[in-house]
């Protein structure tokens, strides 16, 4: 089977500005892939190259064995760009059916496919509404429905849940998760906790250069827990360090501690020992995370 995304020495220039610098990617189909990085790091540029909206200035990129933009990828790859727009004056069903027809569905199949994707995003009732009558969040979900027409193998979603309320954002995450056995999603977002929940592979761009992260590679020698407390407490780091088997404590940010410990010969699970300590010390905890948070993996120096 062809690789999902293969990039070899890909660079992209806008005039003299090098937006992507010698990027190599080799990704197989599977669980969702996060595309992250600070503003201006080159995420949209990479997104556009994979979709075939831009051509690389140098290097080669292949999606499912084909050059992005080629006819062979028609119906196999779809994208929700950050600024995706619907026509305000046509009904939702008319627009989706048109896109389905463009993908080669017959008129009858296009109607069925339109209903199917609207059901997926839980917006069946909006079929006859015009886009201008819908809220921002509803429009976003319709655009996601559009990206799902024809069940493509690769779906690129740029900031898919930006501007959605928590319940709708969660519904989209659940949808991505549920469809992930059939479709590989590439999700670009600044919401690291969202990506952390969904993805086990990360493409991290920094000034146009790529570092691929496999999430949370716990070694056999050392395991990590991240403890987030509700309020500031003195002496937390010292008390954590005094626990048996704890090797390192990193105060990664305010009220957050990354605890490295040796799992060899543990008599009591470390999470239980930590919660017992919180209880004894009267520390109220907000979260206890197995491993590092994605934010710490990407940005913290000591993590
Ligand atoms: N059309 C363009 N013309 C000139 N420079 C551009 C153009 N598009 C992007 N750039 C530059 O290329 C670099 C990468 O931009 P890109 O939009 O890919 O970053 P990004 O990671 O998507 O950023 P953000 O998180 O802010 O959306 C930036 O320095 C940007 O200024």
From TrEMBL:
Domain of life, source organism: Bacteria
PROSITE patterns reported for this sequence: ABC_TRANSPORTER_1, ABC_TRANSPORTER_2
Keyword Mitochondrion: no
Domain ABC transporter: 5-232
SMART domains: AAA
Keyword Nucleotide-binding listed: yes
Pfam family, one: ABC_tran
Gene3D superfamilies per record: P-loop containing nucleotide triphosphate hydrolases
GO molecular-function terms, A-Z: ATP binding; ATP hydrolysis activity
Keywords noted in UniProt: ATP-binding, Nucleotide-binding, Transport
Family as reported in the entry's similarity comment: Belongs to the ABC transporter superfamily.
Protein name from the UniProt record: ABC transporter
């Amino acid at each position: 089977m062809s690789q999902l995304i293969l990039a070899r020495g890909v660079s992209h220039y806008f005039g003299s500005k090098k937006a992507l610098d010698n990027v190599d990617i080799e990704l197989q189909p599977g669980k969702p892939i996060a595309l992250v990085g600070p503003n201006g790091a080159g995420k949209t540029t990479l997104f556009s190259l994979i979709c075939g909206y831009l051509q690389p200035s140098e290097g080669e990129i292949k999606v499912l064995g084909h050059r992005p933009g080629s006819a062979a990828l028609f119906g196999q790859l779809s994208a929700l760009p950050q600024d995706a727009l619907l026509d305000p004056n046509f009904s939702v069903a008319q627009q989706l059916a048109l896109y389905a027809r463009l993908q080669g569905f017959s008129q009858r199949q296009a109607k069925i496919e339109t209903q199917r994707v609207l059901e997926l995003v839980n917006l069946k009732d909006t079929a006859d509404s015009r886009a201008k009558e819908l809220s921002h969040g509803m429009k976003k979900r319709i655009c996601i429905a559009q990206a799902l027409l024809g069940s493509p193998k690769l779906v690129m979603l740029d900031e898919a849940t930006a501007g959605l309320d928590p319940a709708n954002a969660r519904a989209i995450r659940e949808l991505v998760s549920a469809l992930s056995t059939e479709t590989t999603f590439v999700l670009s977002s600044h919401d690291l906790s969202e990506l952390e929940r969904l993805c086990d592979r990360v493409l991290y761009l920094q000034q146009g250069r790529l570092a691929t992260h496999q999430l949370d590679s716990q070694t056999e020698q050392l395991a990590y827990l991240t403890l987030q407390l509700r309020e500031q407490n003195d002496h937390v780091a010292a008390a954590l360090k005094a626990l048996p088997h704890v090797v390192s404590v990193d105060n990664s940010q305010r009220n957050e501690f990354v605890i490295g410990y040796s799992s060899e010969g543990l008599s009591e699970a470390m999470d239980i020992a930590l919660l017992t300590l919180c209880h004894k010390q009267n520390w109220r905890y907000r979260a206890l995370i197995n491993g590092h948070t994605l934010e710490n993996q990407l940005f913290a120096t000591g993590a």
